[in-house]
Amino acid sequence: MKYLIVKGWLGFGDRLESLKMAVSYAQTHNLQIYVDWRDPMWSHGSEDFYTYFKLVNMPVLNSLSDIPEDATYYPAFWKGNLEKHVTYEFIQEHKDENINIGVLDKPFEADVVVFSSCGTRLLYNDSSFFAKSFRVVDPRILSKVRYHASRKPLGQSWGIHIRGTDRAKGPNRRHVSIQSIVSHFTVMGGMNMQNVVVMSDDAEQLSVWKRYYPQSYVVSEVSLQNYTLAGNHNVSKDQLTSSKDEMNVDSLVDFFVLTSCDRIFSTMKDSRFAAEARRLHPVVSQILNGS
């Protein structure tokens, strides 16, 4: 094994879970890694992983074109198909090709291992190994996170992640999810919190939250302007009033502000976005500042 190619799949929380496993695997086996997030959930043309991030302190592959033509691949399907991207349709079309290699926990007999980011992942509560290598490099994200940190002491704030849209369909479920987090937040002492910082992709649910906590400091901007019940990461280019790049930056600012908060709450118990924010909280300064 010489190279590890990581394909993008689903939302940012899912991508982080997959990427952390891939980084750990590449570090263990000393593989050159390349992250390919040009799939339509992340990119509508020019956006990629490297638009916003970079990997350091480990072997990296600068371009897919740097892979020798005679290299062997696992799964074999990817030889000659490396420019293809993982989508729901792709998975259905190639369900017999065994593109899902499962958990990265063993070596493979090939020069190039392609991880489709589908299926089961290993989870890492200690993210120090990841923080050693993962950096935010987009100045728009860094400056906006610093701006919010200047408005609110994030390390002394409680972060609220209100995930709605495709994860809270139907008016009853939408109101129940807000009432549930409000009740939990209040029981945990939220009424006494001076610094409440909120991230949301759902304008309706956010308005309900603010009936209970009107003093909340709202971070999200572009995602609320493009709010749709389909889920913003699933929206096609012609349905957006903002570019995919603007949507990505807004979501990443939300994530790293949430990650910087002292405590993190979410309307969705299985939110990978919130779960990874909690896991990365102890090392967020290193990821943002390279320190």
3D architecture notes:
The protein has ten helices and ten strands. The protein is of the alpha/beta class and 291 residues long. Strands 2-1-5-4 form a four-stranded parallel beta sheet, with helices on one face. Strands 9-8-7-10 form a four-stranded parallel beta sheet, with helices on both faces. β7 (158-162), α5 and β8 (196-200) form a beta-alpha-beta unit. The two termini are 31 Å apart. The model has no long low-confidence stretch (mean pLDDT 87).
List key phrases describing it:
291 residues; alpha/beta; Rossmann fold; 2 domains; four-stranded parallel β-sheet; elongated
Reconstruct the topology from this structure.
Elements: E1 3-7, H1 12-29, E2 32-36, E3 53-55, E4 73-74, H2 88-93, E5 112-115, H3 128-131, E6 134-136, H4 139-151, E7 158-162, H5 171-187, E8 196-200, H6 203-212, E9 217-218, H7 222-225, H8 244-260, E10 263-266, H9 272-280, H10 284-289
Parallel strand pairs: 1-2, 1-5, 4-5, 7-8, 7-10, 8-9
Antiparallel strand pairs: 3-6
Helix pairs in contact: 1-9, 4-8, 5-6, 8-9
CATH topology group of the largest domain: Rossmann fold
| Computed Rg | 20 Å
Strand fraction equals 5-15%
Which class of secondary structure composition applies to the elements? Answer: alpha/beta
Q: Which CATH class of the largest domain is shown?
A: Alpha Beta
**What can be said about the biggest beta sheet?**
4 strands, parallel
Q: Major sheet: order of its strands?
A: 2-1-5-4
In helices, the fraction of residues equals 25-40%
